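User: Run a structure prediction on this.
Assistant: Running it now.
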Amino acid sequence: MPSDRIAIVTGASSGIGLAVAERLLADGWRVSGFDVGAPRIEHPRFAAVRVDLTDGGATEAAARAADGASALVHAAGILRVGPLGEMKARDAEVMWRVHVDAVARIANIVIPAMAGRRDGRVVLVGSRVAQGKGGRSLYAATKAALIALARSWAAEVVASGVTVNVVSPAATQTAMLDDPARQAATPQLPPLGRLIRPDEVASLVSYLLSPAAAAITGQDIQICGGASLAR
């Protein structure tokens, strides 16, 4: 992979985003890491972009500054839980802004440029919870929205050399599991018997960004550890 190719990775300071950024650097990409947190990567091909993804104007400015990006990986995410009767409007707003609004603003800038060059890859990190789960309806709704966005964008740019896919992991071993806001919702282990590892998600993202995956677009690919077998 030529080292002049640029990938935008949101949420690059922790969890899946960090694992993706590290994997893409190993693959030879230049990585522009969008995150409100301090960077955890020091690498000559890594550029840390401190941006609050709930701030639409700042997000768009960061996207415009990442001129020439050939890939976009949206891994930034937060989880707020709550059953009916306890759902909070602020939780819905912040999850929508981080999961959906931020990537829509970035995509609106970078995907047309990719299509103009007839070269581009987009991967949105979703969740198996997008299928629905009690107590997590607001989170599920934002992750389901990513699938709709991906399929719609894929249909628009499929003839322009750009692919758009979703990768949806089951419960993954990240700092999100330790968030006090989700302590009432213990993650359920998949039949595999352990949580999904961030590097496993990063490996699939790496493939989807590669030339070998040029014919895969508009898909929601699950990394479920067997959780989707019982249907």
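Strands lie at 6-10, 30-35, 46-50, 69-74, 120-125, 162-169, 220-223.
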